[in-house]
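Reading a protein record of the kind used here takes only a little practice. An example makes this concrete, so a full record is given next.
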Amino acid sequence: MLPFRCCIIVHGSLAEEVNGTGLTVTAFCPGPTATVFDKAADMEKDSNMFRHAASAEKVAKAGYIAMMRGQAESYHGAFTKAMNIGSRLVPRVVLRKFARKMNG
């Protein structure tokens, strides 16, 4: 979870730095996405994370729309939004245990 938060901070800083120049930076957090990765990693049956994964097409469309709107941050789906909020509110030890459980 810590790298996730660092990524958002760095992208947010970069988005602010280019603000007003005609450029935009979008940090898109897609959350669980149905791709061949979960099958190749043998995670599809054991991981809680991929049980309600969005299709790659839906995720790509949402990311494109966020980018075209110039959003600095965008989260796909309620689960990903809730994880973002939760990562700010709960102790890191709890986040690590939760991440371990979600990853199988």
About this structure: The first strand starts at residue 27 and ends at 29. Residues 2-102 form one domain. Strands lie at 27-29, 33-34, 54-55, 73-75. Residues 30 and 98 are 18 Å apart (CA to CA).
